[in-house]
Amino acid sequence: MMDAQTAINEIIARKAANNPMTVDELKALANSVDVSTGNSILLLYSGGVGEVTDTITGYRKFSSGKLTEFLSNGSTVKTIADTQISKFLESDDFIQALGNAANSEGISYNSLYLGIDENGTRINNTSFWDEASARLVNQHTGDFRLIMPHAPDGSVAVETEIPTLLHKTIQPGQKVNGIDLQDWQNRYNAEKLLSGENAAKAELVSLIRATSNADLADMSVGRDATGKLYLDTNSYLGRALGLPAKEIPAGIEVTRLASLSDMHPTDADMARYVKYGDLLNKAGLIGDVLGTALAIAQAQHAYNNGNTNEAGAILTAHAGGLVGGFAAGTASAALVAGLLLAPGVNVGVGAGMAITGAAG
Question: Where are the beta strands (DSSP E) in 60-153?
Fold first, then answer.
C-alpha cells in the first residue's frame, strides 16, 4: 500500500510525460493507496443531526461530518478523513486527472467520483468514494461508531458502508455502536432468511439509525459568535470514545443533538424495538434509551385510553430494569428522565415516571 503523495506523484509524472492516466488506471492506483486506520475506533457518518431547519430539503441543524471532525483525535478515534485514501481522493491533482479522463472517455465525472447523476441521484455503488469506503470498513480492525441517525437512503453509508459491515470478516470482539458486530450480522442473516435481503437490510439500517440517535441522546452542541463548533464530551458517547471530558463554555447557546421528536417512536419503531429487544439489551445505555422511548409510547397509549394504572405499571416495570436502576443516580437514569419529563411528553406520564423514579 502506498501513501497519498506517492500516488499523486505518479499522476504528476504521467501528466508531465504527456501520457495521462485513464479512468481504469486511476481506479487501480486508488485501490493501491493505504486505507488503514489501525485499531482505533472508526467513526462512520452520514446525514444531518438535530432539529430540521428546512422542511423542503430535510436539512438539519448540524452536519454529522462536522461532528465527527470534532470527535476525531487522529489516533484513538478516527474517520475516513484521517486516511491516506481520503487525502488522495480529495487532492487537486487526482480530481483534475479524473475530470480529464472522464471527459476524454465520455463518462460522467459525478458517476465516477460519487456514484451520482447530474441531479444528485445515486446511480451506482462503484464510485471512487464507495470503493474507498468499502475497503475502509473491510480492513478496519477496531470498533465502529456510526454517527448517522438520519442517514439518507441512497447515501454511501446506507448503500455501501452498512452492507459492508453486515458482510465483512469480523475481528474478535469488534462492536458497532456498542453491540458485537457478530450479533448484528447474525440478526441480519436470520432476517434475510425470513424476509429477503432487501427487507433485512432495511430493518438493520433503521435499527442502526435508532442506536446512532440514542448514542447522541445526552450530548449537547453549541456555536460561538464566529461559528466555531463546541461539543459536550462529558457525555455517554464522549466517554465511550475515551475522550477527555470537555463541557461547552459559558455564554454559548446549547442545543441537544438528539431531537425530542426523534426519541418518540412511531408504531413501526415500537414494533422494531420489541422485535430486536434482545439485541438492544446488549447495548447498555443505548438499549436503555430506546427501551425508555418504547415504554413512554406504550404508557402514553394506556394513559390516553384512561388506563392510568396500566401506564404506571409499564413505567414502573421499565424503570426497574434499567442499567444500574433508575433511582441509583446513574447516567442512564438522568438520560431517560430527561426524555420522559421533556416538553412534548404528556405531563401525566412524565409525572408518573417521576414518582416511579422516586420510589425506586
Answer: 60-63, 77-78, 144-147
CA–CA dist 248, 268 (Å, integer): 35
Which pTM was predicted? 0.82
Q: What share of the chain is helix, strand, coil (3-state, %, to 5)?
A: 55, 10, 35
pLDDT in tens, the chain (360 residues): 899 999 999 999 999 999 999 999 999 999 999 999 999 999 999 999 888 888 888 888 889 999 999 999 999 999 999 999 999 999 999 999 999 999 999 999 999 999 999 888 999 999 999 999 999 999 999 999 999 989 999 999 999 999 999 999 998 899 998 889 999 999 999 999 999 999 999 999 998 988 888 788 778 888 888 888 899 888 888 888 999 988 888 888 888 776 545 556 666 776 777 788 778 777 765 666 666 666 666 666 676 777 766 666 666 666 555 544 333 334 444 455 454 444 444 434 444 444 333 333
Residue pair 241/77 in contact (Cβ under 8 Å)? The answer is yes
Looking at residue 65, its amino acid is: G
Provide the grid cell at 169: 470478516
E strand or H helix that includes residue 69: helix 64-71
Please give the DSSP secondary-structure letter assigned to residue 2.
B
Kind and range of the H or E run holding 42: strand 41-45
Check: CB of residue 256 under 8 Å from CB of residue 238: no
Using the CB atoms, write b or e for 335-357: b if 16+ within 10 Å. bbbbbbeeeebeeebbebbeebb
Report the alpha-carbon angle 359-329-236, nearest 5.
Answer: 135
